[in-house]
Amino acid sequence: MTLIADAPGIHSDASSSTWDSDTASFPGYGEDAPLDLSGLTPAGLQAVTTRLLDKTFDAFAETAAAVKNCARPIRLTGRSRTFDRSEVSELRAALYKTYGPGEVALAEPVGTFSSDEAPLGVLYRPCGNRRADICPSCSRTYARDTFAMIDAGLSGGKTVSATVANNPLLFATLTAPSFGSHVHRHDKNGGRCRPRSRDKGARCPHGRPLSCMARHDDTDALVGAPFCPDCHDWTTAIVWQWWAPELWRRTTIELKRALAKRLDVPESLLKNVASVQFVKVAEYQTRGLVHFHALLRLDGNDGPGSPAPLDGIDLAQLLAETIAKVTFEAPPVDHTGVTRLLSWGKQVDIRVVRDGDRTDDPEAALTPGQVAGYLAKYASKDVASIRLEDITRPHLARLTSTCHDIFETSDALYGGQDNPYELVKKWAHMLGFRGHFSTKSRRYSITLGQLRRARVRYQQLVADARRNGESLEEISTADMEARLLADDEDETTLVIGEWAYQGTGWTNPGDEALALAAAARAREYDQWKAQTKDRTPTR
After folding, report:
1. What burial class does residue 298 get, using C-beta atoms within 10 Å of its C-beta: 0-12 exposed, 13-18 middle, 19+ buried?
2. Alpha-carbon Rg for the chain in angstroms
């Protein structure tokens, strides 16, 4: 049996790209390019065979395309009804909140949908998980949304003024400090771990060498581990990780204070002169601690894109001074009463992406587009990105156990009353990091929620146009963007759903294997299309 990549629904239609006239040139298209199902188990193969025999494969393929080949879709049963908002607004205000959605039935719906009408008799919805190791397809959607959100704040569009492309822009990387011992590292250029010839033969108080002449592979479990586990301060490392979001918050506050002082205005009036907008993502290092990558943009007094009062070099200087002075005194974790003064690590990298004038030079060392792609890439990763395929790196296991230890000692210290470390055990699987992996300031750009809502609206527009025999090609790009990104108040319909959760995931291993294989092929197609576009000569 051969399963081909262009089976109905099991193709790039499940990605953001649409198969177009040049698809036939894609190496993964056609009967000679079957999906990679090398991981299909005997049970999965039997499930796929059953779908082919009972003629439900097309229904599955249509469902898989609808959820963009999600690995763990949500299964729902129930119905939804669509009403003209002008007819039910008063009913909703007077009856809906009091008696429930049943009362809205007093108005005649303009459309209905039931899970019984779905191809498989159950409504499947994408899981929406941002983690690539959980769902490759949904994580790619999240990464694309993150890229769009970041890029809008770099060059405008999607309700953001295009003049933001003229404002000063910084790219900063903030790391964790050292906690008592060097760690083994992988040199991408094939160099040795830590030669340290000047103290050759030196050893730590526990008798372990302070240098390493090995050339570690990136899959070596020793990479990221401290030279001496006994010298390493595991507790402080987790405490720093736990309070890293607070360090970032204090950094943004202190930067605003420094900016107000530099501009000689009261801090309370800074918004009348300038504002700093940012977007940041967290990335795990192999040692198990996060560092933050952040884009910071300086705007004037009239919102995004208004002329900035300082250039990028001055802003970078203020940021460097701010990072060096920001500290936080962490509460004690045990009966010793020891408090820890936390700060950023010494390895701080601040680059001026734009000094104040628009930079579109392809030869520039760091372009805004490259930064946006870099941040979006790491937004879909977590601690799983630094774990080995089959085992956990020993030092990561030690950090996980330290989270449990801190919970026990802090619970005994605070007695369950206002324990600042009460949830550290819950976040042990994240090595104590409880922050969001991507955050942004309010006015940096569009929100991820707006992008998701726009996607739903577009799907509704396509469905309405297909039902009414209309075409969307006559709508200009600007008008389409305005309709999709309009405020909620502009909605003309109200959708009332009555849904019950049935379960998560595909109902058999064959469906899941096909969805994963199709998602991988869709990713290959997107990469091929991007490379082909880069090679296309401009006229």
Report:
1. buried
2. 27
* Cα–Cα nearest to 160, from 172, 150, 168: 150
Contact in structure between 300 and 306 (CB atoms under 8 Å): yes
Examine the domain organization and report whether 144 and 273 are in the same domain.
yes
308 and 268 within one domain: yes
pTM for the whole structure: 0.81
Q: Which residues of 396-406 are buried (b: 16+ CB within 10 A; e: fewer)?
A: bebbbebbebb
Q: What domain count does the chain have? A: 4
Judge whether 538 lies within some domain: yes
**269 and 191 in a common domain:** no
- For each of the chain's 539 residues, which pLDDT tens digit applies? 334 333 333 433 333 334 444 566 888 777 778 888 887 889 989 999 999 899 999 999 999 999 999 999 999 999 988 777 676 655 554 555 555 555 555 567 777 889 999 999 999 999 988 888 889 899 888 888 888 899 899 888 888 889 999 999 999 999 999 998 889 998 888 888 887 655 667 888 888 888 888 999 888 889 999 999 999 999 999 999 999 999 999 999 999 999 999 999 999 999 999 999 999 999 999 999 999 999 999 999 998 989 999 999 999 999 999 999 999 999 999 999 999 999 999 999 999 998 765 444 444 466 777 888 878 777 777 666 777 665 678 999 999 999 999 999 999 999 878 999 999 999 999 999 998 888 999 999 988 888 888 888 888 788 778 777 888 877 887 788 888 888 765 666 777 788 999 999 999 999 999 999 999 888 888 888 877 765 554 44
539 and 521 part of one domain: yes
Q: Are 252 and 144 part of one and the same domain?
A: yes
On whether both 210 and 294 belong to a single domain, the answer is no
Q: In terms of domains, do 156 and 244 share one?
A: yes
Residue 48 maps to a domain: yes
Helix axes 312-325, 234-262, angle to 10 degrees: 140
* Cβ contacts of 156-163, under 8 Å, gap ≥ 24: 156/305, 157/481, 158/445, 158/446, 158/450, 158/451, 158/481, 158/485, 159/446, 159/450, 159/485, 160/304, 160/305, 160/445, 160/446, 161/303, 161/304, 161/305, 162/305, 163/304, 163/305, 163/306
Buried b (16+ CB within 10 A) or exposed e, 25-61: ebebbeeeebbbbeebeeebeebbeebeeeeebebbb
8 A C-beta contact, residue 526 and residue 534:
no
Q: Which amino acid is at 369?
A: G
End-to-end CA distance of the chain: 46
- Identify the bridge partners of residue 329 per DSSP, sorted by sequence position: 341
In terms of residue numbers, what domain contains 204?
Answer: 181-225
Residue 422, in any domain of the structure: yes
Residue 235, amino acid: T
In a shared domain, residues 291 and 215: no
Q: Residue 302: inside a domain, yes or no?
A: yes
Burial category of 315 from C-beta neighbours within 10 Å (exposed 0-12, middle 13-18, buried 19 and up): buried
